[in-house]
């Protein structure tokens, strides 16, 4: 009987191991099935959200475990949060050029969610940026090597001229010249590949590479490409200046017209704004003095008129109306001391009148 029991136990353990221990656990030599809610929790703890979602989707409505399906929205939200968190972390690592960290971050998430398109896309971005970074560094190293050879060239020429019969120095000089030709060729190819790039940084790199290549080993083609790059740079600069000038002329005409119209309509506030915009556009513009003079003259007239109208209303007992006139006038001359004094007096009078009424 005991042998039979042991045989059954051995068979049960074998089947449990064969199934990956997904359905049974061993506790004090007793087997018990893993409960569905425990199984789901294990998957969630391991961030294997798709396993949990697929498992819950297969539960039928009449199943005793049907209530577990209520977890689906929360699990899907956890899954989305996990993916977004992974993307944000890998983006931060990319920004700091931590390529290995960014790769591991996305790879770890893909182990849990291998079919997620966002993670797959992020992995492609990480690999592309990492590869481009490696290429950029290799190009910078090549450029630095070319500049080093260029700086060392006069010294090597001086040494070989001083010791023309030295076999060892001649051998070193030939090796140096071989390096010069090799690096010059590589720099030429680098410059040639980036000459038509739309990226300004790439164009600058191409121009520098071709320049160093030409200085190391001049060729008619390298000179032609350098001239072409320089001409294109001049054309871009010219187009930029023409665009800036056109924009300047447009704004100048716009604010001049706005000032003239505002002054004609006696809208001194809008006229002042237009004048300020002209001053920002070009502080040395000659017409600014004339505009300021015209604005000041019109402002003095309006302030004098406003003060007088307010005084008349005030003397007739229309205190609030007088205050409104003075406040409106103050918008034209906010620093006018007379206006400020009249406004304070009117407000004080109204305040005292209000206290007496209460």
H and E string: HEEHHHHHHHHHHHH
Q: What is the general shape?
A: flat
Query: Spans with pLDDT under 50 lasting ≥5 residues?
Result: 16-30
How many helices?
Answer: 13
What Rg is obtained from the alpha carbons, in whole angstroms? 41 Å
What percent of residues adopt helix (DSSP H or I)? over 70%
Strand residues, percent: under 5%
Structural class based on helices, strands and sheet pairing: mainly alpha
Strands side by side in the biggest sheet = 1-2
* Annotation, overall tally of beta strands: 2
Rounded to the nearest angstrom, the distance between the terminal CA atoms is: 108 Å
The largest pleated sheet is described as: 2 strands, antiparallel
Write down the overall mean pLDDT. 85
Characterization of this structure:
- With 358 residues, the chain is mainly alpha-helical.
- Helices cover 80% and strands 2% of the residues.
- It has helices at residues 2-18, 36-45, 49-57, 72-95, 99-112, 117-162, 167-194, 200-216, 220-264, 268-281, 287-315, 319-330, 337-357; strands spanning 24-27, 30-33.
- A two-stranded antiparallel sheet has the order 1-2.
- β1 (24-27) and β2 form a beta hairpin.
- α8 runs antiparallel to α9 (220-264) and α12 packs antiparallel against α13 (337-357).
- The longest helix is centred in the middle third of the chain and has 46 residues, at 117-162.
- The protein is flat, with a radius of gyration of 41 Å.
- The chain starts with a helix and ends with a helix.
């Amino acid at each position: 009987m005991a042998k039979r029991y042991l045989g059954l136990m051995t068979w049960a353990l074998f089947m449990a191991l064969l199934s990956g221990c997904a359905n049974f656990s061993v506790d004090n030599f007793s087997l018990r099935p893993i409960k569905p809610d425990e199984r789901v929790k294990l998957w969630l703890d391991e961030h294997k959200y798709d396993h949990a979602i697929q498992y819950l989707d297969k539960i039928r409505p009449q199943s005793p475990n049907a209530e577990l399906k209520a977890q689906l929205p929360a699990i899907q939200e956890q899954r989305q949060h996990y993916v977004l968190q992974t993307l944000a972390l890998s983006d931060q690592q990319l920004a700091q050029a931590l390529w290995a960290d960014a790769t591991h971050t996305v790879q770890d998430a893909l182990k849990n969610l291998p079919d997620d398109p966002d993670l797959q896309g992020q992995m492609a971005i990480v690999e592309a940026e990492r590869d481009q970074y490696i290429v950029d560094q290799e190009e910078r190293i090549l450029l630095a090597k070319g500049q080093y050879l260029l700086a060392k060239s006069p010294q090597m020429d001086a040494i070989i001229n001083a010791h023309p019969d030295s076999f060892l120095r001649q051998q070193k000089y030939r090796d140096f010249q071989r390096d010069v030709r090799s690096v010059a060729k590589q720099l030429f190819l680098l410059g040639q590949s980036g000459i038509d790039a739309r990226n300004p940084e790439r164009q600058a790199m191409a121009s520098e590479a071709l320049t160093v290549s030409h200085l190391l080993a001049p060729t008619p083609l390298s000179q032609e490409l350098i001239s072409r790059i320089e001409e294109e740079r001049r054309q871009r600069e010219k187009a930029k200046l023409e665009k800036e000038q056109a924009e300047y002329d447009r704004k100048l005409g716009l604010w001049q017209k706005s000032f003239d119209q505002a002054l004609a309509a006696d809208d001194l506030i809008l006229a002042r704004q237009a004048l300020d915009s002209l001053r920002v556009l070009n502080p040395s513009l000659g017409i600014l003095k004339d505009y300021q003079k015209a604005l000041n003259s019109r402002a003095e007239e309006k302030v004098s008129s406003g003060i007088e109208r307010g005084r008349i209303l005030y003397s007739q007992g229309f205190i609030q109306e007088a205050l409104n006139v003075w406040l409106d006038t103050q918008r034209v001359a906010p620093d006018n001391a007379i206006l400020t004094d009249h406004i304070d007096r009117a407000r004080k009078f109204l305040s005292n009148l209000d206290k007496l009424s209460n």
